[in-house]
Specification:
Layout: H1 4-12, H2 24-30, H3 48-61, H4 75-88, H5 90-105, H6 119-137, H7 144-159
Helix pairs in contact: 3-4
Length: 160
């Protein structure tokens, strides 16, 4: 339900270029979690805050990497850091920190005490379970190599 506190939170993001951009407070919380660049070689030439803004833009809007606005880093740079930070767990740490900060700012406990599962979620979970059961109960298929071998042995035994 839309409440006055939701309007306040939405208005707090008005000064940002895009609603998905990080505020200064969010960046101050997240910046220490980003791993440093590799030792040796050239120093990083990319603004990591802008890279995160690009990643958040794609995640918030659902657009393709190629559709990133021109004022954000190139898609190759943003996607490279997305894949790297997904692999090393940086994105998960950032998500957890922002999640906890948001809940604390709203005056809630850091972890929810209840969960709501609707009928769609329950159906999706059932379908996933059935698929794994169905896959396990299917009859094994013979490979093409086995078929060729058996055909060649049959034809050899029939002609002899």
């Amino acid at each position: 339900m839309w409440k006055p506190e939701h309007r306040i939170a939405a208005a707090a993001r008005r000064g940002l270029r895009y609603p998905s951009d990080m505020s200064d407070a969010e960046w101050a919380l997240v910046e220490p979690m980003i791993p440093p660049g590799r030792r040796g070689g050239r120093p990083r030439g990319v603004n990591l805050r802008e890279v995160l803004n690009a990643i958040f833009y794609v995640l918030a809007t659902g657009c393709q990497w190629q559709a990133l606005p021109k004022d954000l880093p190139p898609k190759s740079t943003a996607h490279h850091y997305f894949a790297l930070w997904d692999w090393d767990g940086t994105l998960e740490r950032i998500h957890d920190a922002l999640y906890v900060a948001t809940r604390e700012a709203a005056g809630r406990e850091t972890s929810p005490t209840a969960a709501i599962i609707d009928s769609q979620s329950a159906k999706a979970a059932q379908k996933g379970a059935l698929r794994s059961i169905r896959k396990a109960s299917m009859r094994a298929r013979r490979s093409r190599a086995a078929s060729v071998i058996s055909l060649s042995t049959r034809s050899a035994s029939c002609s002899a």
